[in-house]
Each structure stands twice: as C-alpha cells, then as structure tokens.
C-alpha cells in the first residue's frame, strides 16, 4: 500500500459540512431514495481525503458505485485514491458467513482497520456504512445496541470518525430508537443534531443486558433535567421575544403617528407658503402696475415745464427738472423689471428642445448692432441644446450675456464666452467674461433682488437681472452659482433639470 505523503488532494473542493463536533461517532437517519445519503456522506468523505485520513465506505455494490460517481463529480480521482489506499469501497460480508452478527468481533476488526490506516501513513480512519448491509438479517439487529455502544467506546479512544447510516424504510423500527440512544450526534434527513438528548453513554448501556441499572436511571434523570432547562430557556426567550415584538409594534405606531403629524404639518406649512408667495407676487404685480401711471404723469408734467417755461427757468430749476425726469425714467425701468420678475413666477412653462447656442448668437448680434463701437470677442460653443421653456431661457441668456457685455465695457480686449462642461450628472453651462468681476465674499447676495456688486456710477442697473435668472433656473429644477475675482472677470455656471419643472 502506497504512502499518502506527497499526494494530498488539496485541490479537492472544501466540503460544505465539517465534522468538528461534540461527537466523532454520528448516525444518519434518512428515508426515500438511497441518494438522499449523499449530501451528508460526500462532504464527510471529502473532508477525510483533504485531511489525509483513509476513507472507508461499506454498502451494497449499487450504493458503492453511486458514492464513487458522486465523488468523481466533485473532482476526486477515485482510481488514484483507491490505488494509494486512501479510498476503500467495500461490499464484502464475510463477517456474516455463518448468518449471525457478533458485535465484539466486528468492533475488533474495525479497531484493526484504524491501526492499519495509521501504520500506512494516514491520520486515521473515516468510516461510513449502511447498517442494513452491515448487519444483514433483521434478527441481527438484536445485537445493534451492544455493537453501537462498543463502537462509541472505540471512537472515544482511537483516531476514527464515522457515520452509521439508517434507512428508515428498510430497517426494523427498533433500530432507529437504538441508533438515537447510542449516538451523541445525529443527522435527521439533512439537519444535524449535535447534542442528542436521547443519547446514553456506552458504559451505562453495557453495564446490564436487561432492565435499567441505577446508573442508567440517574443518567435519564439528568437528561430530563436538561430537557426541562432547555424548555425553560426556550420559554424565557419566547417571552422576551413577544415583549420585544410588542415594544417594536408600539414604537412603530408612535413613529407612524409622528410621521402622519409631520406630513400634515409640512403640507399645511407648504400650503401657507405657496399662498403667501402667490399673494406677495400678486401684490408686487399690482403695485408695480399701479405705480406706472403716476410716474408717467410726473414725467409728463416735468417735460411740459421744461418745454413751456424753459426761458423763464434759471439753471438750478432746469437741473431740478432734469433730475426729476431721470429719476422717473429709472423708476419706470425698475417697475418694468419687477413686472417681468413677477410674470416669470406666474408663467406656465412649455417644455421643449431649446437651442441655447442659437439664442446666445442672436443676443450677441443684437448687442453689436446697438453698440457697434464696442470691440468684443464673443466665443459661443455650437449645438448646445437643452429641454426647457424657450421664452424663459431666452430671458435668462439675455440677462447673463447683458451682464457680461456691461461689465467688460472698461476692458481693452473684452472676451465673452458661452460653453458647457460635461460631467457624470450631465452638462454644466457657463457664461464667462474677463470684465470687472466682484469679490466672492458678497456672493451670497448675488441673486437677491436689488443687490448690486458695483456702484451706480460705475455700472448702471437695478439689481433685478440675476434675480430673474435665478428664478428661471429654479423653475427648471436647476441651480446656478458664480466664481469671480475683482478685476479678472466672472463666470456664471448653471445646470437645468427640465424633466419635471417646479410649479409656479
């Protein structure tokens, strides 16, 4: 017989079941097709082969072939393992030649097989077998209790691991009872019971051949106490689980009530804010609209005075009239801006494809026509489009490009750029200039109405343009921000998400 050293099948798959357990001597009780032993027996044999133990399977020729094929399917070279003595399939029944089964003789043979495995260089013996095949006639099962008890002693004293297989469909009924009594660990179907309550130590079973000795009675009392303690622990765990479930249900109810109350308060607050916004916008529109008529009267009378009494007015009076006309004109412009801002908040969006590059080109052409003396380099990235409202996005682009045109007026070589940056979340559009710029410490006020970064005498305006752009971007579920530096220009970035625009 070849030594196994140097031929360890480390490449075999790791078994799903390990035998590191309370007992090395287990039983498998199953029913149905003989193949139902395989989920337990195959991992057991694989573990033995991996750890350099000799593996012995005892059963009918058909069962042996079935197990051998299952090992082959799991990657085991059964021919090689058999040749080196690591894997043995046995269907011989010479121990039953006389028709009877002698427990002590069978255990002595198995003990010798363990010694032979160790002598051959293996760690010990992994053995599993069909008890019906091993014991033969039903009458031999009268010796099963003694046989398994002696086996249990052998498993406690020598390097042997085993699984005794009991097929309920073909065994005498008492055999299953005796199997449970003599095995500390039992697999029922595919479920391993590591600590079997029905187990009785072998020394107690072998003390008497009939009846129960005092030691057996004491052991049974200990088992009953173990069962009662286990039941008590189970009841306590169930009680704690019920209390925990009741607490969880109570907490869940409280949380649901809090969520309902919170949702209601949020809805009420949202409704109040929406109503307040509508009233504020209506008020702003109404006031702005009603202010235009008085301003027109003031400006008209001032013009009449200037035209009709110009000869009678001294220089100071004419200056006063001019200031009145300039002031009313500025106020009229501010009112127009406010009206546009209010209309943006109330306008219903019409979403479609908007060509931003085309809008930018048209706006730039208009500025060149109005102010032909300006020499401005305008760079527009072509074919930039987005889903949105054409009218509102045109207003936004006009305001952004108008700002860039205005704040580059003091630059010798003015450059205005419109483009986009692609990122994981989509495109970010930008309008960049190399004009006056502004201090970023005031950036938080940039998009509020009437907030200006420069004095009126430097650059004219009412501080409504960027507030208008902010409102338009917000209506498109987008965001806008800026980066700037005094004297080195500004860049306004914006992103749009027009799949579902915000309500007015």
Summary keywords:
single chain; five-stranded mixed beta sheet; seven-stranded mixed beta sheet; 504 residues; alpha/beta; 3 domains; disordered N terminus
Description:
- The chain is an alpha/beta fold.
- It has three domains: 25-206, P-loop containing nucleotide triphosphate hydrolases (Rossmann fold, 3-Layer(aba) Sandwich); 207-346; 348-495, Heat Shock Protein 90.
- Helix content is 50%, strand content 16%.
- It contains 13 helices and 14 strands.
- It has a seven-stranded mixed beta sheet with strand order 3-2-4-5-1-6-7. The protein has a five-stranded mixed beta sheet with strand order 9-11-12-14-13, covered by helices on one side.
- A hairpin with a 2-residue loop joins strand 11 and strand 12 (426-433).
- Helix 11 (356-370) packs across helix 12 (390-407) and helix 12 packs antiparallel against helix 13 (465-475).
- Residues 1-8 have low confidence and may be disordered.
Strand content: 15-25%
Instruction: Compute the number of strand runs.
Output: 14
Euclidean distance between termini CA atoms: 91 Å
State the low-pLDDT regions, or none.
Answer: 1-8
- General form: elongated
Residue-averaged pLDDT, rounded? 80
Radius of gyration: 48 Å
- The CATH class of the largest domain is identified as Alpha Beta
- Roughly how much helix do the residues carry, as a percent range? 40-55%
The CATH architecture of the largest domain: 3-Layer(aba) Sandwich
Please provide the ordered H/E string of secondary-structure elements. Answer: EHEHHEHEHHEHEEHHHEHEEHEEHEE
Q: Strands of the biggest beta sheet: in what spatial order?
A: 3-2-4-5-1-6-7
| CATH level 3 topology of the largest domain | Rossmann fold
Number of helices: 13
> Which secondary-structure class do the elements indicate?
alpha/beta
How many individual domains? 3
Q: CATH homologous superfamily name of the largest domain?
A: P-loop containing nucleotide triphosphate hydrolases
Biggest sheet architecture? 7 strands, mixed
């Amino acid at each position: 017989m070849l030594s196994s050293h140097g031929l360890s099948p480390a490449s075999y798959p790791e078994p799903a079941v390990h035998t590191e357990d309370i007992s090395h001597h287990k039983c498998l009780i199953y029913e149905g097709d003989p193949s139902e032993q395989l989920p337990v027996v195959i991992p057991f044999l694989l573990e033995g082969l991996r750890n350099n133990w000799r593996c012995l399977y005892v059963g009918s020729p058909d069962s042996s072939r079935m197990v051998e094929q299952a090992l082959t399917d799991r990657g085991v070279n059964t021919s090689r393992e058999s040749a080196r003595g690591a894997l043995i399939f046995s269907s011989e029944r010479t121990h039953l030649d006389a028709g009877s089964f002698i427990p002590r003789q069978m255990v002595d043979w198995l003990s010798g097989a363990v010694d032979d495995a160790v002598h051959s260089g293996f760690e010990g013996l992994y053995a599993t077998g069909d008890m019906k095949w091993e014991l033969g006639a039903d009458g031999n099962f009268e010796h099963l209790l003694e046989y398994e008890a002696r086996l249990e002693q052998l498993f406690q004293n020598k390097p042997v691991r085993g699984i005794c297989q009991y097929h309920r469909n073909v065994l005498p009924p008492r055999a299953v009872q005796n199997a449970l009594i003599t095995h500390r660990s039992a697999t029922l179907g595919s479920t391993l019971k590591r600590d079997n309550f029905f187990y009785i130590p072998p020394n107690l079973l072998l003390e008497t051949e009939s009846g129960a000795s005092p030691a057996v009675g004491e052991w049974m009392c200990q088992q009953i106490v173990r069962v009662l303690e286990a039941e008590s622990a189970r009841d306590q765990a169930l009680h704690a689980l019920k209390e925990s479930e009741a607490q969880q249900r109570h907490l869940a109810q409280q949380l649901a009530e809090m969520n309902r109350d919170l949702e209601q308060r949020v809805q009420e607050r949202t409704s109040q804010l929406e109503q307040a916004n509508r009233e504020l916008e209506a008020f702003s529109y109404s006031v702005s609209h009603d202010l235009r008529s008085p301003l027109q009267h003031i400006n008209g009378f001032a013009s009449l005075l200037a035209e009709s009494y110009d000869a009678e007015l001294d220089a100071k009076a004419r200056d006063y009239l001019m200031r009145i006309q300039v002031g009313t004109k500025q106020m009229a412009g501010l009112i127009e801006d406010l009206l546009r801002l209010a209309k943006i908040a109330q306008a219903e969006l019409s979403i479609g494809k908007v060509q931003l590059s085309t809008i930018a080109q048209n706006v730039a052409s208009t500025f060149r026509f109005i102010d032909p003396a300006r020499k401005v380099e305008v760079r527009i990235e072509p074919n930039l489009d987005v889903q949105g409202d054409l009218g509102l996005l045109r207003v936004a682009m006009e305001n952004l490009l108008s700002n860039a045109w205005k704040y580059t007026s003091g630059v010798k070589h003015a450059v205005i750029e419109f483009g986009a940056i692609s990122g994981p979340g989509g495109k970010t559009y930008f309008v960049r200039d190399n004009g006056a710029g502004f201090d970023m410490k005031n950036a938080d006020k940039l998009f509020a109405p009437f907030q200006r970064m420069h004095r009126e005498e430097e650059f004219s305006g009412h501080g409504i343009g960027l507030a208008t752009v902010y409102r338009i971007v917000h209506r498109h579920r987008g965001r806008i921000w800026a980066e700037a530096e005094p004297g080195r220009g500004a860049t306004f970035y914006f992103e749009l998400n027009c799949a579902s625009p915000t309500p007015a």
